[in-house]
Design brief:
Elements: H1 68-77, H2 79-87, H3 98-121, H4 128-163, H5 166-175, H6 177-197, H7 202-207, H8 209-237, H9 248-267, H10 275-304, H11 308-312
Helix pairs in contact: 1-2, 2-8, 3-10, 4-8, 4-9, 6-8, 9-10
């Protein structure tokens, strides 16, 4: 080792330094690991001199999102998946409140149970034919709800877009393409039933021959599953109008249920039920849905700062 003061001598503490110095002793033959002395940032991992190497679990790579072609292929053989893609809101950054969705499902289930109980209590179901008639009536009511929603959709959405500020109108009109596509999808699925069963189209079914009739039956069965599941999703998500703005579904749902209640009064639904029970049953759905819609708007304002006024840019 060269003497102290030589240009090649290792650095050390100055003469008379009162404190011991950290680090390896002079002429330490191995390179020192770790940060240099005075490194200002804390180091992660085991402390210096720890005799065991750190052990980390295997890190899975993130799952790649399915491609568009794969989603289309899956929708071709699974109509329920296609209905989910068509009728559930999917705008990036959309606010989704799971508590409100849970209450909507409970409200739908309890409404169905109450409707079945009302029919059984007043002897609407007494035989297998009555069961078929009640199921057909319930399906017709669901179709009627969807048709009323289809007619109400452009009115409410058009009024909402027209009331928005100029800069927001183009944004909302662009966002309305997906809800409009869901409306067209449910109408097209309804049209396949006419293609398969309408007497007026019997000549067309005969003209395409056996392969064509098989294709029509397969298309009808696919469209039937798509439409039945799509009806439920359309009523819960209100034709995915949350893709336009989150405040639209509760507003549109409130308008829809009062229209359906008015339609029940005009058409004389549940005429076999006493007047008092019929009034309670007809008004129960709109009152419940209106309360739920108001609570949803309250949660959107309290938890997410979304109000009708801010949605319109006013």
């Amino acid at each position: 080792m060269p003497p102290r003061g030589h240009p090649d001598s290792p650095p050390g503490a100055p003469q008379g330094h009162p404190y011991p110095q950290s680090g390896p002793p002079p002429a330490y033959p191995y390179p020192r690991s770790g940060p240099p002395p005075g490194y200002p940032y804390p180091q992660s991992g085991p402390p210096p001199g720890y005799p065991y190497p750190p052990v980390y679990g295997p890190v899975r790579p993130p799952r790649a999102a399915p491609s568009r072609a794969r989603n289309i292929l899956r929708g071709l053989y699974n109509p329920l998946y296609a209905a989910q893609r068509a009728f559930r809101p999917a705008r990036p950054g959309i606010v989704n409140d799971p508590e409100v969705r849970k209450l909507q499902l409970w409200r739908t289930g309890l409404g169905l149970v109450a409707w079945v109980g009302l029919m059984v209590t007043y002897n609407a179901v007494a035989s297998a034919d009555d069961v078929q008639g009640v199921a057909s009536e319930r399906l017709d009511q669901s179709w009627s709800s969807v048709l009323v929603l289809v007619c109400t959709f452009p009115v409410v959405v058009g009024a909402f877009v027209a009331a928005a500020r100029e800069g927001l109108r183009r944004v909302y009109l662009r966002r309305a393409l997906r809800p409009l596509g869901s409306v067209l999808a449910i109408m097209a699925s309804m049209g396949t039933s006419a293609l398969a069963m309408a007497p007026e189209l019997a000549g067309l079914r005969d003209a395409v021959g056996l392969p064509g009739r098989i294709a029509i039956v397969v298309l009808f069965l696919w469209a039937l599953g798509f439409a039945l599941y799509g009806i439920g999703l359309s009523l819960v998500h209100v034709f995915r109008t949350a893709d336009i703005h989150e405040v639209l579904p509760p507003i549109l749902a409130g308008v829809l249920v009062w229209e359906m209640a008015l339609l029940d009064v005009i058409t004389g639904s549940y005429d076999q039920v006493p007047a008092g029970a019929r009034v309670v049953f007809i008004l129960g759905a709109p009152v419940t849905v209106t309360a739920l819609s108001c609570w949803e708007l309250y949660r959107l304002r309290r938890n997410h700062g979304l109000t009708l006024r801010t949605a319109l840019g006013r």
